[in-house]
Amino acid sequence: MFIPIHYRLLVSIDAIQEGLHLSKTGTQSLPRAFSSFSIQHRKQHPHGQPWWSECKALGVFFKQYCVCLTGQSHHSPELRIVLISGRDINGICSNKSATGNIILGKNVFDTNRRTAQSVARQQEVHGRQVTVVDTPSWWWHYPRENTSKLDQIEIQNSIYLCPPGPHAFLLVIPFDSSFSEINKTSLQEHLKLLPEGVFDRTIVVFTAFTLCSDENVETDIRRSPVLQWILQQCRGRTHVLCSYTQDSTQVITLFKKIEAMVAEDGGSNFCVDAASGNALREEMNVLAKAASERCDAAQTQRRKLKALIEGGKTPPTHLKLVMVGAQWSAKSSAGNTILRKQEFDVHHKRRTRTTQYCEIRHSMVAGRPVTVVDSPGWLYNYTLQDTSEMDKLEIQNSINMCPPGPHAVLLVIGLTSAFNASYQRAVQEHMSLFKDNIWKHTIVLFTRGDWLGVKTVEERIESEKGLQWLVEKCGNRYHVLDNMNSRDERQVEELLQKIEEMLAGNNNLYYESDLHSEIKLKDMKETGEKMAQRIRQTTERQSRMLRELFKGERPPVTDMGIVLIGRKESGKSMAGNRIFLTEIFEKAWLKKEFQDERKNKKCVKHQEHLYGVNITVVEAPGWDKDTTPSEELITEVQQSVSMCAPGPHAFLLVVPISKAFTEKDYKAAVMLLMPLGERVWRHCMVLFTWGDWLTSRPIEEHIAREGKPLQLLVERCWNRYHVISCNRFTDPFPVIELLQKIYDMTARNKGQCFTTDGQQKKTQILPWSARKSLTEEEWNRREEELVDRMLKAIANEPEVPTFPSVRTAGSIDPAYLPNMSGDVPSNFGGASDLLRKNLHVSQWLNTGGGTSEATSGFGSIGHPVSHLEDLDE
User: Fold this and answer.
1) What single string gives the DSSP state of each residue in 133-191?
2) Do the strands 604-610 and 613-619 form a parallel or antiparallel pair, or are they unpaired?
3) Does residue 832 lie within any of the structural domains?
């Protein structure tokens, strides 16, 4: 029998009236709440229910919902909460564990170390039985494939630690955090570890060290489209928790928000599949069993090797070790831990590359002499082909630093990220720089042992196929170092014991270096140094000659157009940001995993009035390595010319120092510029990015050793090049130096920008109005005068420059920049004078600033600061 709905509702009219009386704000979200209730009700009663019982349940729900909206509810007797969050690349703490302590009112979660295992803690708080589950964090700037399998399992297991399931997820984000599309992608991928619908039960909790108002939070959200997207997924639910206040109302308010959210979604907890939980626990048990078996096998192997030592196979008294591994794997810190003193520079605060040359250090450790050689690292997810020739040469040379060869090679692997397929490939290819028998003398040295927490290294090995392959390749030899606990002598003594045991099992005490290879590497280094000096001398002479030619011909600067061209991940966007001193171009970082995230195939243009100059920067799309630029990309490069109307003054060919520059890269650059004609090269300059990768090396050494393709590119650009680090936005001097070089290049081009109509056009940057009235005869006379001045300059040029070359990445070129040190005066004065007088860069350029003949400045480098994370600390 069909019963009209209004008759059903009459049954529970009392409950509904009471709810309406309590809710004076109306029922704006009531349809959604009823829908959620209906779905949950049907799940609980799949075979139907008497209509009067259904109506009564509906009335009770409506009463509870309205009560929650008005805040007049008697609170829920139990709340179950799961904390989730990422880790910031800049070391900004999310305060996730501290948030759990604030909620429970006690320090039940350890905030002094990373949470490596999901942990549930329970406490009675404000009349409620509250359960909080703390989970491992992931790196905000990494995709899920870079998160270790152990962490992924623990995140999945979190929802099963508070049966029958959590009421709410709290996404903990530090107040004033910077969020990009990469962070958004990372969050989406990691939330897929949990059942669908997590966002529907999530509240974004902003943590702050000081009291923070809702207006501050709203301002922070307005600045970040990604935060706006996250809040949209969470239906706008936010809360602010201050770490340094005893105000309990912030926790009570949070509880009320959770209860309202639960009531809105039908009053039940988050749905948890028991079968999935059982399968996950079985996976964890299998992993733990395999880890135990590996540990037993390693111990059995060690006992056999110790027996050989006791049988008379005496280990060497002086141990020589070579460390190889990826950049930011805590390699240098591990060397300091082994030597028990700070011998290798780690630059914790500067977050810059620390090892560019092989370095050898000695110390007495556990009563014996120990020698450690540190080598440059490679980017962990880059192939051998991606690594620059300079770094390959230094890595190979590490073996020759302690003749006749090292006793052990320590292959350093950081535990802060997963050993995924790209990491495994990088290790395998870079180890091929040595002979095949290198593996017999290799031990896997895991760093950042604190990252394991309560987990064992064997569990970590068994959880990742790549680590299993690596450890087996090294004969099941591995060791863990906790550089954060460097005072622990036992971890170093045990490592030395493992090395002695390995030597006892080998036929040769040391890995023999190849004498022929050593001689070849030495010759290559000497040849590279000579070529670098020749490049530097040529550049300096050309620079001084041109300055003499155009002395007194320096008209005012008002506009400057720049086009950035380079392959993907070359640092074009960061270079544009560096010029504007702000993040105006979208960055793709140096992470290969995210290279597909940025699918922009069109030129991007930005304009700013900076340094007293109207600057236009156009970024052309990049191309994939080892590929031929498409017709679409060639068309876009042509389009970039019209976007800098009447035409660009400079094409900056962006080349990252951290990566190899191949013949295919050179051909791609030539192919892109070919439709613009040969004269386009008169407006080209090579812009080297990631200057921090050089540290103290001169850029000319990199050009010389990288090979013919890069040398040809520099030559086609008339030996014009500049080096910048991409993220010191507050330091304008390297950018001013770059603009000066562009200005000089434009002066050489007679004040004309580049156009595609076959005619050079004079622009506002050099408006030489006086030239319009010159006759052809007068032009010829002026050119003869310039030639005479050029000949005089060459005649006065010494054979060998008497001044030193620029060798440090932190140096500033006095020929292009107002003097900062006072050693070499400029025509305008020092940079400090420039800032004190509040003068524009254009004024400095227009008065002939930077015309000192002390150096050419073409090889100068900006300050060495990189945005990459230094994971040593």
Assistant:
1) EE---EETTS-GGGS-HHHHHHHHHGGGSSTT--SEEEEEEETT----HHHHHHHHHHH
2) antiparallel
3) yes
What's the CA angle centered on 546, arms 540 and 547, to 5 degrees?
90
Residue 302 in any domain: the answer is no
Spatial CA neighbour of 441 closest among 495, 506, 532, 371: 506
Half-sphere exposure of 471 (CA within 13 A, CB side): 25
pLDDT (0 to 100) of residue 593: 44
- Are 741 and 677 in the same domain? yes
Q: What are the angstrom distances between the C-alpha of 95 and each of 106, 115, 206, 218?
A: 15, 11, 10, 20
Cα–Cα distance measured from residue 661 to residue 706, given in angstroms and rounded to the nearest whole number = 7
Global pTM reads 0.77
Torsion, Cα 350 216 110 248, to 10 degrees, reads 160
Task: Look at residue 552 in the predicted model and tell me its pLDDT.
Answer: 64
Q: How many CB atoms lie within 10 A of CB 345?
A: 15
Quick check: helix, strand or coil at residue 394?
helix
714 and 612, same structural domain? yes
Whether 385 and 506 map to the same domain: the answer is yes
Burial of 237 (0-12, 13-18, 19+ CB in 10 A): buried
Domain boundary among 23, 49, 70: 70
Tell whether 128 and 22 lie within a shared domain: no
Per-residue burial over 20-41, b if 16 or more Cβ lie within 10 Å, else e, is: eebbeeeeeeeeebbebbeebb
Specify whether the CB–CB gap between 802 and 828 falls below 8 A.
Answer: no
60, 93: one domain: no
CB under 8 Å, gap of 24 or more: what pairs does 19-23 form?
19/59, 19/62, 19/63, 19/65, 19/66, 19/67, 20/66, 22/63, 22/66, 22/67, 22/70, 22/72, 23/66, 23/67, 23/69, 23/70
Contacts 24+ apart (CB under 8 A), 466-470: 466/419, 466/420, 466/421, 466/423, 466/424, 467/413, 467/419, 469/424, 470/411, 470/413, 470/419, 470/424, 470/427, 470/444
Q: Indicate whether 17 and 98 sit together in one domain.
A: no
**pLDDT for position 768:** 42
The total of other beta-carbon atoms located within 10 Å of residue 434's CB is 22
Residue 756 lies in a domain: yes
Q: How far is CA 59 from CA 15, 30, 317, in A?
A: 5, 13, 84
Residues with pLDDT less than 50, the chain? 1-37, 39-41, 43-44, 46, 50-53, 56, 60-61, 63-73, 349, 588-598, 759-772, 791, 801-839, 844, 848, 850-873
Q: What does the radius of gyration of the chain's CA atoms come to, in whole angstroms?
A: 33
Residue with tokens 């068994």: 462
Number of domains in the chain: 4
746: its two tokens: 């434009």
How far apart (Å, rounded) are the C-alpha atoms in residues 524 and 528?
6
What pLDDT does residue 298 have?
Answer: 96
Q: Which two tokens mark 175?
A: 């107040």
Q: Please give the pLDDT value at position 806.
A: 39
Residues 730 and 811 reside in one and the same domain: yes
- Domain containing residue 409: CATH number: 3.40.50.300
Q: How far is CA 492 from CA 296, 336, 575, 727, in A?
A: 21, 11, 43, 37
pLDDT for the residue 348 = 53
Q: Identify the pLDDT of residue 403.
A: 87
Q: Are 504 and 315 in contact (CB under 8 A)?
A: yes
Range of the domain at 666: 553-771+802-846
> What is the distance, to the nearest Å, from the Cα of residue 758 to the centroid of all Cα atoms in its chain?
43
d(CA 840, CA 736): 11
Give domain status of residue 281, yes or no: no
Q: What is the DSSP string of 17-81?
A: HHHHHH--S--TTHHHHHHHHHHHHHHH-TT---HHHHHHHHHHHHHHHHHHHHT-PPPPSEEEE
94 plus 115 within the same structural domain: yes
Q: How many other CB atoms sit within 10 Å of the CB of residue 314?
A: 9
